[in-house]
From TrEMBL:
Organism expressing this protein natively: Nitrobacter winogradskyi
Superkingdom of origin organism: Bacteria
Protein name stated in the entry: Uncharacterized protein
Length: 471
């Protein structure tokens, strides 16, 4: 830090402190000087995070990733998120993302347990509305009764959504104690009787999703994961429509040249076009698992491969067909390249923290080019093989696309990385809502990097400095 021209202090790990505070929420106050004690607490937490050294203090940090430093780099990001990163949906679009998820899940054939989709939506939207942007809300079930929901019914649903304070974050003491941190998975914390605490809006909305999704899994809803995938595709299409028109191609199937009719055709989740660009969007519902959040680097690598590399592999296939002469869909539509640039978007249901950081994605694709991971423990071989297979597929796909492009490989790879983005559905919805141009929504900050490790923080920095692309 002493070598940097504009030195700054290490950040306060608010996420860690927030969860420690919930663990002790019911404790009797014993401080004689709360103001001094809070300052001492934040200073101690700041010193702790500085010792761990997970923060970046320069935009050059993380630019180089190799197989030899991969483990440390992933671990740093996992523990960075545990210290600083809140699991949330963007507050400005939380209500519409929540409603869109429920409605599209129902359209996909999902039957909701414990309550109808309308009941879950009514209560969920009221909870989101009553929550505050950056403060807790103490609430009671009687505040949520409507013509469609009696107070008694609200009490029943509150019990399903809440966790007692005595069980909140029990056993959580260190950043590696992620399995004991359960606050992100409940939108309500039961204080006593029928008195509840409601987290800030972004966290409450995300927790509503997490809790209802858990109730769906517990109820063993038929074919739930496929229905979740279909719902996410429709949510992405609705986000695109916020820019002024629906996607030009949605859930369209085609057969590559020479493919046997015995094989299933390929399918594009959604694609759009303008005079200058073609946009491919592939959706994966894959979430960051608790094992990954707890510091299991292999689990994190598997999650990254499934959430980001898998969509890239699918997009590479579509792009290859497009460059080979265009795509003729089975419904008669045609998509031709016509010299346009290609923008690639991988959309996941929830964010994966700082692994979505632009600098990390660039370093990951370049630094692990041609790398192969090995394990000395046979029980991990299947996971290692899965990651290696996806890495090889991405490398082979990009190499073939560069050959089709005909220019210098280095130039193509640079353009490819700059035009490949990974967003969560709430981030994508937020970005689409503020513009009538999908190009701006799909690449909001261009190549600007502030080194925060968080895409939305990068966007906020750009907005404050007047550097955000005009809507």
């Amino acid at each position: 830090m002493s070598q940097l021209p504009n030195r700054r202090r290490p950040s306060i790990p608010w996420h860690f402190l927030y969860n420690i505070a919930w663990k002790h929420f019911g404790a009797s106050p014993g401080s004689s000087d709360p103001e001094k004690d809070i300052k001492d607490l934040t200073d101690l937490a700041r010193d702790m995070s500085a010792i761990f050294d997970f923060e970046t203090y320069s935009t050059f940090d993380g630019m180089i990733l190799t197989s030899s430093n991969f483990y440390r780099s992933i671990l740093d990001r996992i523990l960075y998120d545990e210290l600083f990163g809140f699991q949330q949906w963007q507050p400005k679009v939380a209500s519409q993302v929540f409603s869109s998820w429920l409605k599209n899940l129902e359209k996909a054939g999902c039957v909701f347990p414990h309550a109808s989709r309308e009941e879950w939506e009514t209560l969920g939207l009221l909870l989101i509305k009553n929550s505050q942007i950056s403060a807790l809300t103490i609430t009671h079930p009687s505040e949520y009764s409507t013509y469609a929901l009696s107070t008694a019914r609200v009490v029943e649903l509150f019990e399903l959504l809440a966790i007692p304070l005595t069980k909140l974050n029990k056993g959580y003491a260190l950043p590696i104690d992620t399995p004991h941190r359960n606050s992100p998975y409940f939108p309500l914390f039961k204080i006593s009787g029928e008195l509840y605490a409601l987290p800030p809006r972004g966290m409450a909305a995300r927790a509503l999703f997490e809790r209802i999704y858990k109730l769906l899994r517990d109820a063993e809803v038929d074919d739930l994961e496929n229905r979740m995938g279909k719902a996410l595709e429709h949510m992405a299409a609705e986000a695109v429509q916020l820019t002024g028109h629906p996607p030009a191609y949605f859930a369209r199937a085609y057969r590559p040249a020479g493919q046997s009719h015995r094989r299933a055709p390929l399918e594009i989740d959604l694609a759009d076009e303008s005079d200058e660009h073609i946009f491919f969007v592939e959706c994966k519902k894959k979430q960051l698992t608790n094992d990954a959040r707890a510091g299991n680097v292999l689990s994190a690598a598997v999650d990254l491969a499934s959430a980001f590399l898998a969509p890239l592999i699918q997009i590479n296939r579509h792009e290859s067909q497009l460059r080979a002469g265009g795509i003729r869909f089975l419904n008669g539509q045609n998509l031709a390249l016509n010299g346009r640039r290609i923008q690639r978007l991988a959309i996941t249901m929830t964010d994966h923290g700082s692994m979505q950081d632009r600098m990390f994605i660039r370093a990951f694709l370049v630094g692990l080019w041609g790398a192969t991971f090995v394990t000395v423990n046979g029980k991990h071989q299947a996971d290692v093989d899965r990651v290696n297979k996806k890495l090889r597929s991405v490398v082979d796909g990009i190499t073939f696309l560069a050959e089709q492009d005909g220019g210098k490989f280095e130039n193509f790879l640079k353009r490819y990385i700059g035009a490949s983005w990974w967003l969560s559905i709430d981030q994508f919805t937020f970005l689409c809502e503020r513009t009538r141009d999908l190009r701006i929504a799909s690449a909001p900050v261009g190549s600007l990097i502030f080194g925060t490790g968080d895409l939305m923080s990068e966007i906020a920095h750009c907005a404050r400095m007047g550097l955000l692309k005009p809507a």
